[in-house]
Each structure stands twice: as C-alpha cells, then as structure tokens.
Amino acid sequence: MLSATIFEAKTNLSKLVQQALQGEEVQITMGRERKPVVRLEPIEPVAASRRIGFLEGQGDVGPEFFEPLPADELRLWNGEGE
Fold first, then answer.
1. pLDDT of residue 50
2. pLDDT at residue 66 above 90?
3. Which domains does the chain have, with CATH numbers?
4. Euclidean distance between the first and final Cα of the chain, in Å?
5. In which region does residue 75 sit, left (phi positive, over 0), alpha (psi from -120 to 50) or beta (all else)?
6. Span 7-34, pLDDT tens digits
7. If we measure between CA atoms, which residue out of 64, 61, 16, 15 comes closest to residue 38?
C-alpha cells in the first residue's frame, strides 16, 4: 500500500492516480500523525479487455441502409410532426 500526505498528493497527483489505476492501493494521510483520510481507487476497472472490432462479422448492413429516407419518414426524423 502506498501512502502520501495531502501535500505530497497535490505535488504528485498524476503519478498517484496512475499507480491507483494499475491496482496499487493509495491512501492520502493528514496531520502530523499521518492519519489516513481518503483512498484513491479507479471508478471502473481499467478497460484492458476491450478491443476494437470485437463484433466484426456478427452483423450485416444491407445496401438499403445507405438509401435516402422517404420524404415522410425524413420529416419525422427532423421533428416536423406526425
């Protein structure tokens, strides 16, 4: 576990955040007795498992997708009434 005073945390906040994102427990202490008052931790786990294109080949967009909308449907999309 990593511990830092408030002054040290202000000086090294970026480094402490990076360490917390890597799984290190980071506590911020206060006062001469260095009493722990807060803990830095990621809001969500780091998204290392996400990868671009993981759904590739699982769906199909036909050529009709690229056709212009009919005029009445286009008016609805533009919020021009029903």
1. 66
2. yes
3. 2-40 (3.40.1620)
4. 61
5. alpha
6. 999 999 999 999 998 889 999 999 999 9
7. 16
